[in-house]
Amino acid sequence: MDTPEASVLAPAGAASSIQSGTPPTPKARRWAWRIGLLAVLAALISAAIYWHLTAPDRWFKQGLAALESRDQATLERTVRLLALRGRFDEASFLRGKAHVVEGRRLLEEAFVHARQEQVEQTLFFLLGLGARQCQPVAQRVDVLGRVANPSAAWSAWLASGSQRADLQERTRAAFQLGLDELNHVVSEGPLRTEAAFLRGDCFVRLGDLRRAASMLRYVLDQNPDDIEAHRLLASLYYDTGAMSRAIFHLEEVARLDEKDGRPLRMLGAIHKDFRNATRAVNAYRTALDRPLTPAARAEVLRELSEVLINELGQHREALDFLRSVPPEFAHQPDILVLQAECLWQLQADKSEAQKLVDEAIRIDPELGPALVMQGKLLLHYEKPHESLEVLEHARRLDPFDHKCRNQLVAAYTLLAREADDEVQQTLALQGLADSLVPLGTAPSLPATLTVAAAETRRQTYLFFREDHMKASQIIVDTLLKLSELSAKAEAEVWNAEVRFAIGSIWIQLHRPGMARMWLNAALVCDPQHRGARDALAFLDRQEQLRP
């Protein structure tokens, strides 16, 4: 049966031919041809419109792919097409990200050069020459290097020193160019958020951490779960000493990536430094439940054990953790010393602890904690003179070791007690001698057992004990002052003066690593801070003078 639609859509002649079953007439064929042609034209026009409208999106994706594959020609062509189409945000984003990628590549190259510099310094030391004798050293090291490894480009390694300043300038220029381009991404949306993250990264690399923090906070306002923004902010606030803010972002990183134990390890270290023992233990325990490299696992176990021993007195649990250190790190001297300290508390027989300390000192004769533990064991065996010799050596290595000072106080106390016993013994013998004089049988006392000599030694020991007690109290007071300043630094994130003050105290405490961290934080807050620059220069000179 014919439908009404057929009579409407087809011409009269075509309809009659369909109804009759006869071949279509020429007129019907012309109409069918026209309709088909119109349909094809409509499809082509629709495809062209769709292609025209979606081409910039495809070009942008092609540009991102070109960035990943480092296809510079495709990237430049894509950027030109986007600019011609008026998609300036996408074009600026691609150009800016290209500069950022180049800056990151140059940073990796700079890291390689830094490692090469370490190799050079080691070779200078081994050859017994100074840095001013670079040319003869380069020749001799090239010969030495080719003998050791004929395929190594030792001459290029040594020549790299002249390229470092240029490399640093190129790196800075790349991030500055990236920042300039990304500033042109102004339209609201995901692209602007991603551009803001890259701008924050550029500010970090350029040393402007205040504006970096502002950019990254904007990113988190748009996407609170942006893990990379949390990572950068955690690093930024840690570098400036704003630890509570660093803790917040590290906790977010740990929440967002449950397969990464590193942020929890850093959380544990921060809580450990601020004497928050319970939080430190919880962070370290959680880190151990996540993937860690063997080296990182060993460090977490060591730091966790230090908190359990020094803050909580849980020696049994600490010993269990220390015995689970990966085998390749189990014989590190600091691990051995911590095990010895646990055994000291847990066992009446100190022989096993003594063996561990002896092994640690054999590996590293200058390890302060091992020397302090050795002095402690010698005091247990009532050998105060031998203990004093070991502890004084440890004190010279680190004058601000609180544990060492306490053991020195104990050693001098024992020596003073022995001298006092000697005084009493001498007085008793002298009294006996006096009582026997009438009988003509007075004993002949050695000259060294005179009261004056013994009393002099006792007073000397008491003097040194008092001196070490005062020094120990000074250390405690200084650490309290540091705690107060750290709280102030926490409240005033961009205060350069308080960070300079903290760095100066760490210099006084002979802790150059901590001093550098806080002095650099002061320069982050105020790049022109003269005191921080002078203090860092002083540390550099001290490093050069160190044997």
Descriptive report:
The protein is an all-alpha fold and 547 residues long. Among the domains are: 56-150 and 161-186, no CATH class; 494-547, no CATH class. Helix content is 79%, strand content 0%. The protein is built from 25 helices and no strands. Helix 3 crosses helix 4, helix 14 (277-288) runs antiparallel to helix 15 (294-310) and helix 20 (384-397) runs antiparallel to helix 21. The chain is elongated.
Give start-end ranges of low-pLDDT stretches: 1-18, 129-159
Shape: elongated
Computed CA radius of gyration, to the nearest angstrom: 38 Å
Oligomer class: single chain
Classification by helices and strands: mainly alpha
Short structural summary:
Helices cover 79% and strands 0% of the residues. With 547 residues, it is mainly alpha-helical.
Strand-helix topology:
Elements: H1 4-9, H2 12-20, H3 26-69, H4 72-84, H5 88-127, H6 134-148, H7 154-159, H8 164-182, H9 190-206, H10 209-222, H11 227-240, H12 243-256, H13 262-273, H14 277-288, H15 294-310, H16 315-322, H17 333-346, H18 351-363, H19 368-380, H20 384-397, H21 402-436, H22 451-491, H23 496-508, H24 512-525, H25 530-545
Helix pairs in contact: 3-4, 3-5, 4-5, 5-8, 5-9, 8-9, 9-10, 10-11, 11-12, 12-13, 13-14, 13-15, 14-15, 15-16, 15-17, 16-17, 17-18, 18-19, 19-20, 19-21, 20-21, 21-22, 22-23, 23-24, 23-25, 24-25
Task: Throw out a few tags for this protein.
disordered N terminus; 25 helices; mainly alpha; 547 residues; 79% helix; elongated
